[in-house]
């Protein structure tokens, strides 16, 4: 069967599916990919996490070897994007400060200090009350919904990736044509918990509420990691002074409603954290809640052999990014694509044979 758009199918058009398509397209497979998703960039839904992200690169991710590697690859990817096409990609270099009250992941910070631009440990005398450790570095901030739309457009126009809007009833149904679909990437985010054929009981939602404000005086990304709270101020690139204020990390909470009490808590914590926010009363533009696709043990990036109508096929899981899909998504995608090099070689050979 000659390679076609059905050869590689990616289910999911959140940041993880889009980055998976990007890594494959950069290796020359764009015209052999179909992305199938119920929600596409530009849509909003409680079951589509990506548009609700803050969104920045931070030290919030896990401390295991995978998380460290994915972050490093993600940081390098964002650095390149910001340098070459930051404007159209809605990615910007931004000065950043991160504080920890108690639990400081020192080993991870030491690893990250090897690649973060302008990394510094802050003098203990300069730390706010209650903070035990702080660092500054240059981070990347993203306009999450616009960045997803940028990737969608780039994948279609530059690389010839095909997008299809469809809700699939099971993972098996993702093999669009059992004859020609050689590999499927499962990038379904939180839906991996309930999608027939996957039903991963390790997946759970982590609720976050954010407040979008207008505060053009804000230039610095700032975060405070507390024992039971997470406070952050993230300026949004190319948004005429919009800033995302947060937030919450409510493990196991799948409630996508917003609450006035949460908004009040975010406003008072961010005013205390950021001198730039405290300078002038910010105008509230929107309040939203999103559900991070978390997973016990971290994201699942794993190849699996499956049988579809009697034929051996390959399924690559790539989900469970939790609160790090934008910073780690490119790294996760790199691992997901690397694990099917043998299949890509065969697909590539078939594709060249047609020419
Ligand atoms: C408040 C908040 C703040 C955040 N801040 C940051 C941040 O600063 N930095 C950062 O890196 N990350 C941040 N995140 C986390 C980030 O948003 C997620 O890690 C990321 O969006 C997960 O992307 P995903 O592609 O796995 O899932 P999703 O974006 O949910 O995409 C899943 C896709 O799968 C599709 N799908 C699912 N089931 C089916 C089916 N049966 N048939 C067809 N299609 C299906 C959906 O339609 C969708 O297209 C934040 C999240 C929240 C909620």
Defining key terms:
single chain, 355 residues, alpha/beta, D-Amino Acid Oxidase, Chain A, domain 2, 9-stranded mixed sheet, 6-stranded mixed sheet, 8 helices, 30% helix, 29% strand, elongated, binds flavin-adenine dinucleotide
Provide a descriptive summary of the structure in words:
The chain is an alpha/beta fold. The chain has one domain: D-Amino Acid Oxidase, subunit A, domain 2 (D-Amino Acid Oxidase, Chain A, domain 2), CATH 3.30.9.10. Helix content is 30%, strand content 29%. It has eight helices and 15 strands. The strands form two sheets. Strands 3, 4, 5, 8, 9, 10, 11, 12 and 13 form a nine-stranded mixed β-sheet that branches. Flavin-adenine dinucleotide (FAD) binds at residues 11-17, 36-39, 48-50, 52-56, 167-168, 187-191, 195, 208, 210, 246-247, 290, 292-293, 319, 321-327.
Proportion of beta-strand residues = 25-35%
Morphology call: elongated
Overall domain count: 1
| Secondary-structure class | alpha/beta
Associated small molecules: flavin-adenine dinucleotide
Which whole number gives the mean pLDDT?
95
**SSE pattern, N- to C-terminal:** EHEHEHEEHEEEEEEEHHEEEHH
Number of strands: 15
Named at the architecture level, the CATH assignment is 2-Layer Sandwich
CATH class: Alpha Beta
Low-confidence stretches: none
Give the full name of the CATH homologous superfamily: D-Amino Acid Oxidase, subunit A, domain 2
Alpha plus pi helix count: 8
Gyration radius from CA atoms, angstroms: 20 Å
* CATH fold-level topology: D-Amino Acid Oxidase, Chain A, domain 2
In helices, the fraction of residues equals 25-40%
């Amino acid at each position: 069967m000659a390679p076609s758009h059905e050869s590689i199918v990616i289910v999911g058009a959140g940041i993880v599916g889009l980055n998976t398509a990007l890594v494959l397209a950069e290796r020359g497979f764009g015209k052999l990919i179909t992305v199938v998703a119920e929600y596409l960039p530009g849509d909003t839904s409680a079951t589509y996490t990506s548009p609700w992200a803050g969104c920045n690169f931070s030290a919030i991710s896990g401390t295991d070897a995978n998380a460290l590697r994915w972050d490093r690859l993600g940081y390098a990817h964002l650095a390149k994007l910001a340098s070459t096409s930051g404007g159209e990609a809605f990615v910007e270099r931004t000065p950043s400060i991160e504080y920890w009250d108690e639990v400081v992941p020192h080993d991870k910070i030491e690893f990250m200090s090897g690649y973060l631009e302008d990394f510094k440990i802050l003098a203990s005398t300069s730390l706010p009350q209650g903070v035990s450790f702080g660092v500054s570095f240059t981070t990347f901030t993203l306009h999450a919904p616009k960045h997803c739309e940028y990737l969608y457009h780039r994948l279609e126009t530059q690389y010839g990736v095909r997008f299809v809007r469809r809700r699939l009833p099971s993972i098996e149904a993702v093999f669009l044509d059992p004859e020609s679909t050689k590999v499927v990437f499962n990038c379904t985010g939180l839906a991996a918990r309930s999608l027939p054929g996957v039903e991963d009981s390790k997946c759970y939602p982590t609720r976050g509420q954010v407040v979008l404000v207008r505060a053009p005086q804000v230039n610095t990304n700032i975060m405070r990691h507390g024992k039971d709270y997470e406070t952050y101020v993230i300026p949004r690139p190319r948004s005429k002074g919009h800033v995302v204020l947060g937030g919450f990390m409510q493990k196991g909470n799948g409630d996508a409603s917003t609450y006035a009490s949460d908004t009040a808590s975010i406003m008072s914590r961010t005013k205390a954290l950021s001198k730039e926010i405290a300078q002038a009363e910010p105008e509230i533009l929107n309040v939203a809640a999103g559900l991070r696709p978390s997973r016990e043990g971290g994201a699942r990036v794993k190849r699996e052999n499956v049988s579809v109508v009697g034929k051996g096929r390959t399924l690559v899981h790539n989900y469970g990014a939790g609160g790090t899909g934008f910073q780690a998504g490119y790294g996760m995608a790199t691992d997901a694509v690397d694990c099917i090099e043998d299949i890509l070689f065969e697909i590539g050979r078939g594709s060249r044979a047609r020419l």
